[in-house]
């Protein structure tokens, strides 16, 4: 008798509608259809992205880029099963969000308009860091408690070489600190800190905030320019919760030590001894003294690159989109009703950005 094999039915499709574009990208840089979830190895691949508003009635999630919400261009209706998603990467220090929250007309806006948040903050319903970056372990390279035995015919390391090291990879690093910035002044007042730091150590400033230029901006040519420097200022324009932008990952991806200035807990984002935090120093003069110490001791400087043996930088991580699809497939969430009474309160007022003036007052 022929054996009957039961096949598990495929889960139904989950439609994700991009109601607004993300700046000029109607596909939010992730792509349309099912392909983004397949090619990125997501656990669930039954999600389909689209910008076709005719798909509103069958959409499971409707995404709004907060900077481009138009109060006169909102869905005319919504179904109880749909999740309206507040999507944002940028920080907005000490301001209200345009056309999000109570600035929407009452006939179109009610409290609890957004069900989920999808931002770079780790307390979001969906945490997404695609525009910035991430660090992931090279799982196969973590060492055992003791080193492996050597293959036949292989000798251990030569003590003479270990005790008389030279570092040819540092030959081109003849300059100290580089900073790429074209947004000045800023809420973090990073430009004021850098101005003070430059009194004690060489700082080359590229872009509109300085006197040097590298074109085209954000190109591989400019990133390769960093090979001549030992340190890179990854200073954010605002000191906001969990805000770690591409500046940090750009430096980590190169053979240069990032000097961070931001409102995030960087120890949660990167391995120990992979960056220098301005907040750890009483003043720019103290930071400059430490940079000069590292500059004059190659072994101390190279300690900041040991992490690369076991970790690597991912410049455009897609995990957040995989997580969104997983949440839409979670049966425990199908009947859970969640919404934000005032998403602006969560985004801005509940945990405000820290003024740069307050930081500088105690660190200069």
UniProtKB/TrEMBL annotation:
<dbReference type="InterPro" id="IPR001503">
    <property type="entry name" value="Glyco_trans_10"/>
</dbReference>
<keyword id="KW-0812">Transmembrane</keyword>
<keyword id="KW-0735">Signal-anchor</keyword>
<keyword id="KW-0472">Membrane</keyword>
<dbReference type="Pfam" id="PF17039">
    <property type="entry name" value="Glyco_tran_10_N"/>
</dbReference>
<keyword id="KW-0325">Glycoprotein</keyword>
<dbReference type="InterPro" id="IPR031481">
    <property type="entry name" value="Glyco_tran_10_N"/>
</dbReference>
<feature type="domain" description="Fucosyltransferase N-terminal">
    <location>
        <begin position="13"/>
        <end position="128"/>
    </location>
</feature>
<comment type="similarity">
    <text>Belongs to the glycosyltransferase 10 family.</text>
</comment>
<dbReference type="Pfam" id="PF00852">
    <property type="entry name" value="Glyco_transf_10"/>
</dbReference>
<keyword id="KW-1133">Transmembrane helix</keyword>
<keyword id="KW-0328">Glycosyltransferase</keyword>
<feature type="domain" description="Fucosyltransferase C-terminal">
    <location>
        <begin position="171"/>
        <end position="346"/>
    </location>
</feature>
<dbReference type="GO" id="GO:0032580">
    <property type="term" value="C:Golgi cisterna membrane"/>
</dbReference>
<dbReference type="InterPro" id="IPR055270">
    <property type="entry name" value="Glyco_tran_10_C"/>
</dbReference>
<dbReference type="InterPro" id="IPR038577">
    <property type="entry name" value="GT10-like_C_sf"/>
</dbReference>
<protein>
    <recommendedName>
        <fullName>Fucosyltransferase</fullName>
        <ecNumber>2.4.1.-</ecNumber>
    </recommendedName>
</protein>
<dbReference type="GO" id="GO:0008417">
    <property type="term" value="F:fucosyltransferase activity"/>
</dbReference>
<keyword id="KW-0333">Golgi apparatus</keyword>
<keyword id="KW-0808">Transferase</keyword>
<comment type="pathway">
    <text>Protein modification; protein glycosylation.</text>
</comment>
